[in-house]
Amino acid sequence: MPHSPSNQNHNSIFHPYYGSPASHISEAQILEVSGGESSDIDSAAKEKALELRPSESPHPDQSASLNNLAPVLSTRFQQGGERSALDEAISLHRQALDLQPSPHPLRSVSLNNLANALSTRFEQGGERSDLDEAISLHRQALELLPSPRSLRSTSLNNLADALWTRFEQGGQRCDLDDAISLNKQALELQPSPHPLRSTSLNNLADALLTRFEQGGQRSDLDDAISLHRQALELCPSPHPDRSASLNDLANALSTRFKQGGQISDLEEAISLHRQALELRPSPHLDRSGSLNNLASALLIRFEQGGQRSDLDEAISLHRQALELLPSPHPDRSASLNNLANALWTRFRQGGQRSDLDEAISLHRQALKLQLSPHPLRSGSLNNLASALSTRFEQGGQRSDLDEAISLHRQALELRPSPHPDRSGSLNNLASALSTQFEQGGQRSDLDEAISAHKQALELQPSPHPLRSRSFFALGNVLVHAHSSTDRNSHFLEQAMYSFSADNHQHIRAIDAYEAALQALPQLAALSFDLQSRQEALSARSDGLARDASRCAIRTGDLVKAIEFLEAGRSIFWSQSLSLRSPFDQLHDIEPQLADKLRHIADALELGSHRDISADISDNRKKLSLDQEAFRLNRLNEEWANGIDEVRKLKGFEDFLRPRRFSELQRAASEYPVVILVANNDGSHCLILTSTTIQHIDLPRLQTLVLQYLVRLVQDAVSESTVSFSSVERVMEDLAALLGENRAVKRMVNKLGSSDDVFKVVLRFLWDEVVNPVINFLKIEKSCSGELPMLQWCPTGAFTFLPIHAAGCYDIELSSGCASDYFISSYIPTIGTLLTPDPAPSIEAFKMAVIIQSKELPSTKTELKNIERHVSSDMLNKLGVPGKPATIEAVASCLSNASIVHFACHGKQDQFKPLDSGLQLDDGLLRVSRIMQETMPNGSLAFLCACETGKGDENLPDEAMSLGASLLFFGFRRVIATMWEMRDADGPTIADAFYEELFRGPDEKPALEPDITKSARALYLAVKKLRSQNVSFRRWVPFIHMGK
What we know:
This protein is α/β, with parallel strands linked by helices. The chain contains 42 helices and 16 strands. The longest helix is centred in the middle third of the chain and has 29 residues, at 619-647. The radius of gyration is 37 Å and the shape is elongated. The chain starts with 26 loop residues before the first helix and ends with a strand.
């Protein structure tokens, strides 16, 4: 992150001699004589000084006269940059010092002034001898200023400043330690309200921050932040240094966030940067720095939380900063790179080609301003090369790839060993050369790529964090080499070694996965609003739990595999539900702690529903939002600390932790739980029973195969006519992946309708998933109609496949289907099966039915069919004449009803899942609105609407569907649809469903339903719909979720 200019400076001690009026000359007098033009200072100063200088030598005022003239020459250097003026000033200071032997009262002043002039010359020319002499002179001056002399603190600061500078040049730790010690002494001599106290506080803070960056001592960082806070308190508005102090504190907090990950530090840093920006309106010289600093902090927050508004605002701020840095401003190249990198990040998120093209253009401009030996040139070469490689992958323009390779070579030349980024440059060049080989390049490209990857590995000895990635990259290149040569080559053996080197220590990997999964809830922090939580998980979490589970399976630890899946999925819901945890048992033991947590939970839940929208350029509104975010972050920290306190109590050690396996296994006490784990290199099936866990390997079902199956289902259920050319392309790709070209060609030739596509997919699922499970569990076809239940817990792409309908539906090949053997129910997590049913109520059973009769005429028939089975005094009907189905009316009835039935339009928002909803008379009842309700009595929700069980394709393991939202927030069972349903099918399904649900043990209609039969009731209802010979896409989408 860019930092503001240091607050440190050389504090000159200028004491003119007042022995006689003629002996003193001030800079103001010189300007007056010269007419005020700085260009005339030199001649005027000399003339006036000579005029006032005593003629007799050595005169007692000679040293004062020299000391008076030297600062004027220094001023001339500062204004015009003439080196000779600075050299002459140093010469005059030396002469003055020679005339002030100890114990001359002004010797310390002359020592200090000469030292500062030498320090200035060092900054210009870099002569180390100047800096060393300056330090020696400052030490001599300090010895002449014992405490409590008023000038001692200034002398301490000057010596500390010079030592700091020498540390930055040579890296000697003792110089830094001495500087810190001197700064501390200076601070002790500057109690409030000393005018220089804030400067000393900042100087000491900066030095401690530097020592932290060198040694990593957390106390140095914490002390630096504390000192910056004290400095800020001494700079109330409109103090001219307030903006700089705000900036310094913000940068220190950002550093602590990078170390500890405490989101409140980052939020406070952003708020402080906003305040600093408000104090630096255009044309403030430091405005561009504040714009860049705020943009950088927002980018960090985007990387953590994935909120697109942070990224967009960062880009806007970087654009404003760039406008304030016209060429040849020295900071323009860095600003160009900052904007380019932010645009690159947005391209990776949204795929907008214009962002990538602009990033490339900006990188080119930055590179032109960073001619060799500019220290940032190698980074700019690398950035431009990476962006060009990405554009080649998008558009296939060979010139982009050729230029990228050339740029990577140039960057590598600027990073000779032991440059810390050399291994990265080697890997980047290797990757580009490998791509060139794949495009038809020479064998020499491949050989060079292999060599570069190996050189990179030599520079990454264990435990280098990128060593594993380099092994994997080398393995991939070696596989390409093997495939391009004869099969007896040695490349394959080397590739296998690289992959095994990458994966050889699964036990250590399990520990790493466990730590990563424990950190996942921090991504969706409770201080975030709901949308920010969801976006944060979209950016960072998907697939982690599945990968962790696969790792555990490979080691044979099936218990850990299940715990990983439970801990790393549905984080969004578990975070939200943690705020509604019952504290009754805790209240019996620690009532004050329980009340405190309840109060914090209420505040955090209220904050999660806040509106964070603001115009991108409205910095004041954003400042207000950030301050509210900071308040909630503090509450989030209090919440976390409170939970830690609870876990110290006996019997509460696992309070609000993910469930352990011993508890999860209770979910399979009645029916098996079948967990489908989707992975890139082949999937796995874990079967959990009340006594055991069993594993079935599914090697042919890698993620890409599952994605092809999902695309076939999407084509088959499309409202428009099925595009068989699209279906054929997908099936050909699938055949190539599986090596079954002949069989697939025969199937393609038979395609004539969407049902044919379904038959292909459902047969594949039957052969590869369902039939192996049936055989493993030894489930037999039932002739009596009493079928067992299987509880499916799909992950990844499995979430979008109709496992419950798998089977062989070709009459001539019929070998059965899932519904011949069992009844299916889906669960997003095993924990949803452990939610207790509502406590028995003395109140009468209540059911709410919401219909959308104006747009969906069949819903009237659906309501009539429900009324045939449910007593009218138990029904609360909305959407009928006199009782409109408004959002608030419907939301309020969710808390009282045991059963709710929706017969309306449903919508799964593919971009903002929390905006998915059910269409009512006055708008959508969104998921985000449903989450505001409590539903203690909810037993069953029937969502007879489109896409209510569809979920978010970008985040399958978070179960971001309407059905899941009701399941997590109170309803124990949900009926939902995987895609659009036919309006005309609603009455048929509802009639058969409620007929079974309200059937008593004596087979006669009952007054109240048996909710536990809901899965069987749906099974029978779908069976009735199928008996009408409807298409697959009409009966397959209905699914049961929950118990």
